C-alpha cells in the first residue's frame, strides 16, 4: 500500500524526536548517567528506526539501528559513556537530520556520509566490546508466554500481544494489519465495524508498536495488552484481568499496562494542523473584524432609542469578534523555548573550538511569540550568540587574571513589555572597546568624533562590513552579519539596542512586536488621507506653541519639548499629500521614538486608537517607501501603516535631492547669466 500520505507525519515526529535526543544528550552526565535519560534517548532512536523501516528509508534505518545498539548497551550498563562518545552521538544526530532532509526532498542520502557515521559508531562498539554482553537478558518475564504463542525460534524472548484498534477506516485497517506482519507473526485478526483486534507474536515492546502505528492513527485509538499463558495449560492463552482499568491492584504486568491510557488521553488533546490552514483562519477572522468595524461605523447614524436592541447586539458582536480574534491569534503563538533549545549545542561546539568555558542560562522560555517571527529570529540570535562567544567572553586564563570565574556566563532571556517582546543576549565578557570601534570607523570613512555618546558608538558595529576582529576565523571576523541582523530585525518591525561596559560585558536587546497579523495603532489624518502609526512607537501628542518651533534650514524645523530639541518631519511632504495642514502650530505633533532617536511627526488630526488587521502591501501591490503595510478601516477605505523607523531616512533623502536640484538650478541660472 502507498504510504506517501503518512510520510509527512513521520518527518515531523522524527525531527521532534531528534531535537529531544540532542537536548537529552547535552544534559547527560557521562560520569553518572541518569537511567531515565538513557531510556528516553534509546526510545527516540528506536521510534525513528521503526518509522524509517516502515517507510523503506534504508539508510535511516541502518544508521539508527547501529546507534540504537550502542544506546541499548549503555542503558544496561554494558557500555561506559565518555565525552568523545557523546560527541559521536551528537554527530550521528546531525547525520540523521541530513538523511531526513534528503528523504523529505525525495532524494537518497549521501552514501559516503552514511558509511562514515556508521563506521564511527561501529568503531565505538568495537573499542568497548570488552564491556559488552548479549542483550536478550533484560526480558525474562515474557518467556512463558512465548511458548504459548507459537513454535517460534526465539521462544525465550517472544510474547503474544493483543492489540485493539478503534475508529478505523477500511484503508487504515488494511495498512495497520500489513504493518503488524513486519513486527511479528499475526496469530488471529478480527474485524468488527470500525474496530480491529490482532493477536501478535512478537519480540517488540508495546511502546515500539505504538510508535510505529502512531504514524498512521492517533495513540488514543490503540490499546495493547499482553497475553499470558497458564503454566498448566500452555496452549490456552488467558488475558490478565489486571490489564483492565477497573481491576484492583495486581501483579507486575499491570504496572506497564495502564501506561498507554494516560498517554493516549494527553495525545488526543492536541492535533497537528498545517500552518497554511491557521493563516487562512486568521485572515478570515481578520476580515470578520473589518466587517464588524464597518457595521459599527455605519450604525453611528442610527437613533440609539429606536435601534436599541440592534445596537446592543452590535456591541455583543464587537466583543465576541475581539475575543475570537485574540483566541485565533493565540494559535500562532509559540514559546521562546523553541528558539532557546537550539543554543546549548551551538555553545557547546563553539566554546570547545575556541577553548573557552561557557555556562548558558535562559529565562523566559515560556514567553510566547508569533510563529512567523519566531522562525525569523533564529538566525539573528545565532549570530549574536556566536559574537558573544568569539569576541565577548574571554579565555579561562584571561578571565582568571582579571579576577573573574574561569567559566563565562551567557544569558538568553525573553519577556513581554507592553505590546512587545524583549529578547536579550548578554555576557559577562570584556565588553565593547570604544577606542577600537572609533578607530575602525575612521578607517572606513564613517563620520565619527570622540564626543559621541556610547549608545551611538555601539550602533557603529551595525555598519556593513564593520569588524574589529584582529583575525578572521570560521566563526566571525569578516564584518558580515551584524548589519544583516539589524536589517532583519527592522523588517520584523523591531529594533536593536546595545549596552556595554568595559570589562563587565555586553547586552544586546531585541524589541519585537508580539505578532505581525494585528497591530495596535493610532489613526491620523493628513489632508484627505488616513494613516496608521504603530502605537509601540508613539510617546505622546501635542499642539506646539510658536515659541517652541525653531528653523534650522529653509524647510527644516525642530521642536523644543521639555528642553529637548526634536527634528520635525511633515508627513504631507514625505507622502506628497495635497490639501494638508502646513503650519505646525495649526496641526498636531505626534512624538515617536525609533532606533533610540525621537522626532515629531506633523499630522492634521488624531482620529483614534484601535487594533487593525495588517495586510501585506507588497503581496497585493508593490513596496512603497515609508509604508510598511496597509489595513482596511471601519468605513471600508484603505489606510496605510507608516514605517516610522524609515521617516528620518526618507526626509534626509528628500532634503538631499532638493538641495541637489536647487544647486543644479542655480548653476544653470549662473551659466545663462554669464
UniProtKB/TrEMBL annotation:
Pfam families, sorted: CheW (PF01584), CheY-binding (PF09078), H-kinase_dim (PF02895), HATPase_c (PF02518), Hpt (PF01627)
Domain of life where this protein originates: Bacteria
Domain Histidine kinase: residue ranges: 308-516
Gene Ontology cellular component annotations, sorted alphabetically: cytoplasm
Reactions accelerated catalytically: ATP + protein L-histidine = ADP + protein N-phospho-L-histidine
Domain called CheW-like: residue spans: 518-653
CDD domains: CheA_reg (cd00731), HATPase_CheA-like (cd16916), HPT (cd00088)
Biased composition (Low complexity): 253-265
PROSITE patterns hit by this protein: CHEW, HIS_KIN, HPT
Keyword annotations: ATP-binding, Chemotaxis, Cytoplasm, Kinase, Nucleotide-binding, Phosphoprotein, Transferase, Two-component regulatory system
Localization (cell): Cytoplasm
Gene Ontology terms describing biological process: chemotaxis
Broad EC category: transferase
Described purpose of this protein according to its UniProt entry: Involved in the transmission of sensory signals from the chemoreceptors to the flagellar motors. CheA is autophosphorylated; it can transfer its phosphate group to either CheB or CheY.
Protein name (database record): Chemotaxis protein CheA
Organism: Variovorax paradoxus
Gene: cheA
